C-alpha cells in the first residue's frame, strides 16, 4: 500500500512537459539570436535590436528553473514571458527597415513566441493557449500594420498547435488523476481484505455468538445481544466490499438481475446487502467465486428462504446466513429462530399446491446440480442448507468419456 501511494504521489505526467517547455525556450532563443545575427545588417537600429536580444536571452536563462516545474511556474511568470515576446514583435517595426517589414521578414523573437504559448498550454490547457496564441497573432498584425495572408496563416498554425498541445495536456492530467484514484482504490481494497481475514474468524464470530446467547438468555442479556448484533452489522459493512446493509428480509432482486451470467461472481457481493438488524450474514474474508448463473440462482434461493422466514416466522424473527467455501462446493445455510414446523408439513404444502420451497429453493438448486436440505422442528426454528458443487473442468470430463 505504501509503495503504491508513493508511486501515485511522486509520478507526474506533467513534469516531462515542463522540462520540454524549458528546453524549447532555450532552443528557440538560440535560433532567434542566430537568425537576427544574419539579418542585423538590414536593421536601421541594430544596437537597439541587439539590446532587446540581450534582454530576451538574460530573461530566458534566468528563468530556466521557474519554467522547468509546475510548482515554480505560475500565471505571472507566463504573462511576463508573453509580454516580453510581444514587445519584441512590436519593436521589430521600429528597429527594422520598413521595406523588410512590408516584405514579411521575421520578427526579433521569431519562433521564441511559440515557446510562450507552449507554457500556457502546459499550465492551463487549450483555452489559455488559444488566448496566448491570439495575443501573439494580434501583435504580428500590429507589426505588419495590416492583415495579410501570411499573418493569418501563422496565427492559425500557432493557435492550432497551442490548442492541440493544451488538449493533450488536459487528457494526460485527467488520466493521471484516474490512475492515482485507481491505485488508492486498489490499496484500500487490499487493506480491507486483510482486515476481513483478520477480523472474520475472531471479532465477528464473537459478536454473533453474543447476539445469539443474549437472545436465548433474555432480560438484560437480550439488550446486550442486540447491541452486539448492531455492532457486528456495522463492522461487517465496513469491511465487506463497501456494500450497505439492507434492513429488511427482501432479497436484492434488482442486483440479482444485474449479474452477468457469463462472468464469475463473488457470492458475498450478493448476500452481504441482506444484512440488517434481524439478519446476520457470515462469509469468508476472501472472495467466494461462482459462475454468474450459479451465483444468481443461489442468491435467489437465499432470498426465497428469507421470504419464508418473513411470512412464517414473523417480522421479529432473527435469521442467520452462513456462507462456507469448501473445496468441492459452496454451502449457504439460512437459519431462523422462528416457531418451526413438523417434518411432514413440507409434503402437505406440495400436495396443497404451494410450491415455494420445492420450486423457488429446491428447484433452483437441482438445476445447478446441487441440493437443498430443510430441517425444522416445532419450537426449534428452521434451517435451510443450500449446496452448489464446483464445476468440473470440461477437459477432465472429456478424458473420462
Automatic annotation (TrEMBL):
Q: Which Pfam families match?
A: DUF5931, HATPase_c
Query: Which superkingdom is the protein from?
Result: Bacteria
Q: Which residues form a coiled coil?
A: none
Instruction: Cite the entry's keywords alphabetically.
Output: Kinase, Membrane, Transferase, Transmembrane, Transmembrane helix, Two-component regulatory system
Q: Where in this chain does the record put each Histidine kinase/HSP90-like ATPase domain?
A: 298-391
**Where are the stretches annotated Disordered?**
368-401
CDD domains associated with the record:
HATPase_UhpB-NarQ-NarX-like (cd16917)
Ranges annotated as biased composition (Basic and acidic residues): 384-401
Q: Name one GO molecular function term.
A: kinase activity
**Start and end of every DUF5931 domain?**
10-180
- Transmembrane stretches, by residue range? 20-37, 43-62, 74-95, 115-139, 151-169
Q: In its keyword annotation, does this UniProt entry include Glycosyltransferase? A: no
- This chain belongs to the protein called MacS family sensor histidine kinase
Query: Which organism was this protein described from?
Result: Streptacidiphilus cavernicola
